[in-house]
Amino acid sequence: MHSIPGRRVIMALFLIFLLLPIYWLVNMSFKTNSEIVSTMTLWPHAPTLQHYKRIFTDESWYSGYINSLEYVVLNTIISISVALPAAYAFSRYRFLGDKHLFFWLLSNRMAPAAVYALPFFNLYSAIGLFDTPWAVALAHCIFNVPLAVWILEGFVSGVPREIDETAFLDGYSFPRFFIKILIPLIASGIGVAAFFCFMFSWVELLLARTLTSVHAKPIAAIMTRTVSAAGMDWGLLAAAGVLTIIPGALVIWFVRNYIARGFALGRV
Amino acid sequence: MDKTVNQKAWFLVLPVFLVVAFSAVLPLMTVVNYSMQDTFGNNQFFWNGVGWFKELLDPSTDLGSRFLASLGRNLFFSLVILAIEVPLGIVIALSMPRHGWTVAACLVILALPLLIPWNVVGTIWQIFGRPDIGLLGYTLNAMGIEYNYVSNDIDAWVTVIVMDVWHWTSLVALLCYAGLKSIPEAYYQAAQIDGASRWAVFKAIQLPKMNRVLLIAVLLRFMDSFMIYTEPFVVTGGGPGNSTTFISIELVKIALGQFDLGKAAALSLVYNLIILIVCWVFYTVMTNAGVERKAQAEAEPAAERKPAGALQPAPALKPKEGVA
C-alpha cells in the first residue's frame, strides 16, 4: 500500500549509481600507475598496496588525517557544549528578541564560506591562531553552532515540560537538573547533533585550507597540493581519497538507527 | 504548551551568541569596511563610498557583467538541481525497503556520499568522467558519444549537475524517509478501507506528512547549491571559459586571486543579502506552517472531548500509533 511499483528496481539502480564512482576510486587506488594510464581494466589486474603504504609511512601525508580529525573533534565539542543551553532556552522560554536571534543564527548556517574566507584569514592571523586547529574549529562554528542549536531544540521540545517542573520541585538546582536529567533524556539528540557537526566540519575545505599553512593542514588540502607537484600520481590521489571516505563511513555505521530522524533535524 | 517569558534565558543563549558573533559579526564588519574603500597596495586605503556597489549592479562594467553572469548561472543551476533532486528524493524515499537488514544497508549507502569531503567528491567525478582513465568518460566515448567535460560547455554542465545529484539527492531522500516513517499505520489501513488509489494515498496522506521535511530539504538544497564552490572548482575549475563559474568561484577569484578587496567585499555583501532574503522567506513560511499545525493539533482533541463526556468513553478504540 505505501510503496510504489518497481521500488526494488529503482532502489537498486540508485544504489548502483551511488556506488559506481566510489568503486572506481577504490579500484584505482589498488592499481599501479602504469596500469591506470595504459589500460582500461574493471578491476586491478596487478593489485598493489604501494599507494596506501606510502601514505601511512610518509609523515607529510598521514599528519593531514590527524590534523583534520583534530579540528573536527574540537569543533564538535565546542558546538555541542555551547548549543545545549541555548537549545533549552529556545525550547522553554520566551525572551526579548528570541525569534530574531533564532533567525540570525539560522542565517549564519546559510552564509557562504567564500564570503568569510578572507576576513577569517585576517581575524585569525591578528589573534595569533592562524595555522592551528583552533582557528579551523572556531571558524566552522559559524555553520555548526546554529545547526546544533536547531537540531537540539527539536529534541528538547520533545521532552515534556512536566519533567523539568518535577525535578525543580524535588530540589534539583538548574545545573544539576541539566546534567543529571535533561542530558540523558536527549542523549540520542546529542548524538545526532554531534554527527552533523562532525559531518559538516569534515567535508568543508575552503575555510580549512585558507586558515592553515603548514602545521594544521587538513588531508583534503594536502591531497590537492602533493598531487599537482608530483605530476598527477593518480593511484596515490585515489588512495588518499578512499582514506577520507572511511571515517565518514564509520560514523554513519554508528548512528545508522538514528539517521532518518536525525536528518529531519528532530522535527518530524 | 505555552512558553513562559523569562529574560534570564539570555544567560543560556549568551555562549552561542558570543561564539557566533565572534565568527560572524567581526569578519562581516571587515567586509563592510573593505567594501567602501579602494586600495593601491601598500596597505593604503581610500574612501570609495558606494562606488563598488554601483559598479557591481551595472552590467556594462567588467565587475557587473561578471557578477550578473555568475548569478544567472548559479540561479539556473540551483533550479535545475532542485527540479531533479526533490522529485527523485521523494521517489527514492518511497522505494525504501520496509523491514529487515536491507533498511540499514540502504540508509548507510545513501548517507555515504554526504560524508565525503567536498573536494574528494570533486576528485571522484573528475576521475570518473575523464575520457582516458574514467569509467564514465571512457564508456560514453566508446559508445560513440563525444564526451569531454574539459573542453565542452554542455558536458561540463551535465557533469556538474550529475555530480550534485549524486552527492545530495540522498539528503532529500533521507529527510522524506523520516517524514514517511512518522505516518501511523492506521492512516494506510483507513485508506485501504476507503479503496483509495496509490496516487490518492500519496496525495492525501504521504505528501502532507512530508510537507515540513520537504521545506527543510528545499531550503538546505537551495542554500547549499547557491553557495557551491569546492566540487565544481575541482572538476572544471569554473571552465571551460567561464561556463561553470558560480558566484562563490567568482568571489574567490576576485578576493584571493586578484586581491581586489573592495570589489570582493561589495560582492560578498550583495551575495549575503540575497541569501538573507531567501532565508527569511523560508523561515516565515516554516514558522507559519508550524503555527497552523499547532492550531490544528489543539483543535482536534477539543472536538474529541465533547462527545466523550456526553456518551461513552471511546478512546480505547483509537489505534495505537507507530505499530509499524
Automatic annotation (TrEMBL), chain A:
Gene Ontology terms describing biological process: transmembrane transport
GO cellular component: plasma membrane
TM spans (from-to): 9-26, 71-90, 102-122, 134-156, 177-203, 234-255
Record-linked Pfam families: BPD_transp_1 (PF00528)
Main localisation: membrane
UniProt domain ABC transmembrane type-1: residue ranges: 65-255
Coiled-coil stretches: none
Keyword set, alphabetical order: Cell membrane, Membrane, Transmembrane, Transmembrane helix, Transport
Database matches in InterPro entries: BP-dep_ABC_trans_perm (IPR050901), MetI-like (IPR000515), MetI-like_sf (IPR035906)
Mode of membrane association: Multi-pass membrane protein
Subcellular location: Cell membrane
Family stated for the protein in its record: Belongs to the binding-protein-dependent transport system permease family.
Protein name per its UniProtKB record: Sugar ABC transporter permease
Lineage: Bacteria, Pseudomonadati, Pseudomonadota, Alphaproteobacteria, Hyphomicrobiales
Automatic annotation (TrEMBL), chain B:
GO annotation, cellular component aspect: plasma membrane
The protein's name in its UniProt record: ABC transporter permease
PROSITE patterns, sorted: ABC_TM1
Annotated TM spans: 12-34, 75-95, 101-121, 156-180, 213-230, 264-285
Native species: Bradyrhizobium centrolobii
Region (Disordered) residue spans: 296-324
InterPro entries per record: MetI-like, MetI-like_sf, Sugar_ABC_transporter
Membrane topology field: Multi-pass membrane protein
